[in-house]
Specification:
CATH topology of one domain: Nucleotidyltransferase, domain 5
Strand order of the largest sheet: 1-2-3
Order of helices and strands: EEEHEHEHHH
Structural class: alpha+beta
Shape: globular
Largest sheet: 3 strands, antiparallel
Distance between the termini: 30 Å
Number of helices: 5
Radius of gyration: 16 Å
Helix content: 40-55%
CATH class of one domain: Alpha Beta
CATH architecture of one domain: 2-Layer Sandwich
Number of strands: 5
Oligomer: single chain
């Protein structure tokens, strides 16, 4: 998990919490708001845990949203290890940093966001396209969605 910041057309800030599965490379969620607090991070991870199961580890940086008591409590109650990147070492979370670079180049820099709702819609459309239509070399030229479905079938066998 990590954050990307941008602005609406009128200069108001927006923040995007990006959640990427390290195994499937799926962008599980991009939560967009004007500010995201620790409680919102917990709400996102809790919803994802219901849909996908509780992860063993979540890799995060040292931002205030990730060192919050709310996330620490949720992680403890769900036996999830929080793996914090070393300060000033974005390479510790290279997958998410690479994803965030693509998000910035292909979506944030390419769009003019007229409102928070407009930003949410455009970013969600880009996330779906990323998961459903973009093959990745690291996944054997499959999309993250195809790879995840194949992995789930193999696990069920």
């Amino acid at each position: 998990m990590d954050f990307v910041s941008d602005a609406l057309f009128d200069g108001r800030w927006l923040r995007a919490l990006t959640v990427v599965d390290a195994f499937t490379r799926e962008a599980l969620r991009i939560e967009v708001d004007q500010g995201i607090k620790g409680e919102q991070v917990v709400a996102v991870v809790a919803r994802l845990a219901i849909l996908r199961g509780v992860p063993e580890t979540i890799q995060v940086d040292n931002g205030p949203e990730f060192v919050s008591k709310a996330l620490d409590r949720w992680a403890y109650e769900n036996s999830v290890a929080l793996d914090f990147s070393r300060p000033g070492k974005p390479t510790d979370n290279a997958l998410v940093e690479s994803f965030n670079g693509r998000l910035r180049d292909e979506c944030l820099n390419a769009n003019w966001f007229l409102s928070l709702a407009n930003a949410r819609a455009k970013i969600e459309a880009w996330r779906r396209q990323y998961n459903e239509s973009r093959p990745h070399t690291a996944l054997g030229w499959r999309t993250p969605q195809e790879f995840a479905l194949a992995a789930a079938r193999e696990a069920a066998e």
